[in-house]
Amino acid sequence: MPLILFDLDGTLLDTAPDLGTALNTQRAEHKLAPLPQERIRPIVSHGSPALLKLGFGIEPNDSRYAGMRARLLEIYRGCLSQETRLFPGIDTVLLDLERRGLRWGIVTNKPGALTEPLLQAFNLNQRAACVVSGDTTPRRKPHPDQLLHACALTSCSPANSIYVGDAQRDVEAAHAAGMQALVALYGYIDVSERPADWQADGLLGKPAELLPWLNTHAAAFDAQKAG
Fold this sequence. Notes:
By secondary structure, this protein is α/β, with parallel strands linked by helices.
């Protein structure tokens, strides 16, 4: 039975509204005008480095970066699940996977101190077969370490695992781990990005498309074994 792993921000949960609120709150502290959500949303999957670059023009090598990042995460922690929602159709997908007896888990670059309370708010922590956060392993995506750790936690082979994410590094990490990669096109993908060129094994326009993809994949796998 395959293991289906999901990215968190931009794949399972629409966290952009609360992350946008946190960034604009921090901008207000510096007497800067708020940025429109449509500018913030496409970069959310790239985490605090991208948010701080957009909001303040600073990079991780800037002397102000560590303090600014700590403050951004502090603000975000205070509004973690106010406007965040499951993407439409995700809960139906998860319920269907569970009815089929398929295990699913979460692999995210989000720090564990933010991942855990967020999952608790949506009652996902008890349902997931594994949760691997950005600080669970020394290296994060695009390195394969987190995905391999998820396989170790669930005693599942990477070759029998699938990772769903909305960033190119998700595809790179999955392939480096030896598993298939699907792109959540409904996630946080900027118009300048070209997910069709990421060499993923499938593209999902909406969460519900995962189920027929799995059906096709299972049929092809059974046919290969029979042959």
